[in-house]
Structure formats: structure tokens, C-alpha cells
Amino acid sequence: MAPQYAPSLRSRLAPLLLFLQTAFIIIYAFFVEVDSNVKVDGETFSNFYAEFQDVNVIVILGFGFLCTFLVRYGFSGSGFNLLVAVMATQWAIILNGIESWYYRGKIRVNLRSLVVAEMCTASVLISMGTMLGKTNPVHLIIIALLEVSGFIVNEWVLQTLLKVNNCSCVSHSHQILGPSIFTPYTTQCMLYSQGNSPVCCLYSPGSVFLWMFWPTFNSVLVDDRTPGRKLGAVCSTYLALAVSAVTAAAIALLSHPKGKLNLIHMQSCILAGGVAVGVSMSAVHQPWEAMTIGFSAAIISTIGFQYLKIHMLLAFQCHDTCATLSTHGLPGLLGWLSHLLLQIRDSDDHTMAIRFAVFHICTLLITITISLSTGFVTGLLLKWNFWRPPQSKKCFDDQAFWEFPHNAVRK
């Protein structure tokens, strides 16, 4: 029998990328301009550019190298991450600037708008990890366009209906909306071909970059007009990350039958505290509160990684490549619950506490509803054979998309 080769994407991917990039250039030419104001919301270029760099490192290097534990999919894990990130960021700038275009006739671009766009992109990259290796780049571009649109719609609904501030909108959307988009896209891929490389995992800087720069990710949009608020966000995030790293190591040892650490296990779970405290940031005022949240998030994430992933595969045929649900989904929900409990505890008026609880539950329901709706539409589109999905024996295989000159036969 002749070998089965992956279908060529020349007639699908290249036209799609050229069409989208040409359309973006035209839109930017007529409707986008750089904001000439020296100060933006009290932030100057010199003191905000470092935070923009930190977020950029998270999006490009952190998420990019996070998936190099896939021994035969390292090129695609990092390369497609960059491709999706830059396309999603350009699209997010346009959608975020629609209100500015409506009132001013132009979409204003500055460092803050770039940061918000990249945080929208982070939501795409998080949910992309659930399907990585079982999709092709065309699928990933479609996911990026639709999920950024869902992210902006969710932010607009929360701000319009519930008057949620921008920082809280971004936190809820990227921590909860992204992991909730488990699209109903399934493929009969050979999961044994996923392959985990301990060496690649050991020297993968993705988790290290995310761990180092996550305090900036949680604090970059915090209003610093209240003295010490941004500093408190940075300290709380660091303490939650530190506690989650220690707790994840302890739980990993206890859950292993021989008492050994799993590198991929650690890579996924050490971020749980930062994810959870990011959602509950506005209600965290004491270091011990952040540390408790980090401790609880690490336990939930580690147990979820150990048991939930395999059960979801067996029960629902839902294969989560990067354990996104246990790394971001469960800690995100824990952060939402922690925010609710802390706000109720700090409220002296029972009536206001009840109103806040109803308000807080509505934000979660709206976010999950929009995310599931977006995921359902995305899944229906990805099931079309027109996009030439990878064959079952070509999942988690770089050779389906990349040229390997050193594998050429020499005569």
C-alpha cells in the first residue's frame, strides 16, 4: 500500500493568509492612526513600554515554547503560535477600536491598545492548546478570528449590561472564556503519536517565561491611580505563583505511585496560582489570601491533570493536548469563586452582598454562554473537509507542514 501523505495546504493556507493580510493593510491604511498623545491614561511611553515587552514575551515566547514537549510537533507548536498570535493581534486591534472609529472616525493605536489586543490573543493561544496537533494552520487561523471576535463581544456585553470595568472584563474573558471553548471538533487521530519528550520538556523555556512574567500580565491593566494597587497585584501574583509551584510539586509526588516528579505535570500546574489570582485580583488585599488561592489552585490543577484529562478522553472523546482545562479552566473558576467569597466577606451590607453575588454569577454565565456559542460555531466550521484536516496518522507530526532537508535521500 502506498504511504499516506498529509494533504498540501498550498491552495488553502496561502490564499487565506494573503487575503487577510491584504484586508488588514487596507483597513489600517484608511481607519487606523498612531495616538500622538504623550500620555495615555496617565502612562508615559517610558514607564509602560517595559510592561508591553513583558506581555509580548508571554504571548510569543511563553505560549510559543510551552508546547515543545511534543517530541514530533515542536516546530509547529512554536511556529504556528507566532503565526496565530500576529494575525489575532491585528484583528483584535481593529475590533477593539470600533468604538473609537465610530466617535472619532479613526482607530487610535497606542501601547495600551497593543497590550489589550495581545491579551485577547492570549485567550486564543490558551484554547488553541486543546486542539494543537490535531488541526492544521488553516484551522488555527479560523479559531483565532472567531475567538477574538467572541472575546470582544463578551467584553462589550459585560461593559454595556453589567458596567464591568475593562480590567475585570479582560481577566474574566481570557481566564474563563478561552479554556471554555472546547469545540465539538473531533478527529480520529492516533494519540500514541503525540509523544512526550522529557528532554524537550526539561529545556523548554515556555513555562519559565510564563511564570516569570505572569505578574506583569495580571497587573498591566490595573488602575494605578489608587496608591499601591499595581504593586499589590504584582506581589499577590508572585506569592500565588510561588505557593502553587511548591504545592504542585508536593501533590505530584503524592499522586505518583513511585513518588517521582513528572516534568510535563509540573510544567502545566505551576501556573495555576497566577491564573486563579488574576481573576480574583480586585478582591485580594492581603498576602495570605493570594497564597491560599495559589495553594488551592495548585491542588485542583494537579489533581485535574492527573485524572481529569484521561477521563474526558474516555467519556467524551475530548482530547486536551496541553491540559488547558486543568491549567487555566479550573483555576479560573476557582479564582471566580474566590473573588465572590472575598467580596461577600468584606461587605457590611447584606443587601449589597446579595446584589454583588447575583451580579458576579451573571458575569460568569454570560462569559460561558458566549464562549460555548463561539466554540460551537467554530467546531462546525472546522469539521468541513474543505480545510483539509490532517489524516489520523499525521497528527502531531511536523513533517506534514514543514520541510526537513536533512531527511532528504542522498544518492
TrEMBL record:
Its main location: membrane. Residues 22-146, 206-383 form the Ammonium transporter AmtB-like domain. It is a multi-pass membrane protein. GO terms for cellular component: plasma membrane. One of its GO terms (biological process) is ammonium homeostasis. The chain crosses the membrane at residues 13-34, 55-75, 81-102, 138-158, 200-217, 237-256, 263-284, 290-310, 354-382. One of its GO terms (molecular function) is ammonium channel activity. It is found in: Membrane. Keywords: Membrane, Transmembrane, Transmembrane helix. Belongs to the ammonium transporter (TC 2.A.49) family. Rh subfamily. Functions as an ammonia transporter. May play a role in the elimination of ammonia in the gill. PANTHER family: AMMONIUM TRANSPORTER, RH BLOOD GROUP, D ANTIGEN. This is Ammonium transporter AmtB-like domain-containing protein. It comes from Amphiprion ocellaris. The lineage of its organism: Eukaryota, Metazoa, Chordata, Craniata, Vertebrata.
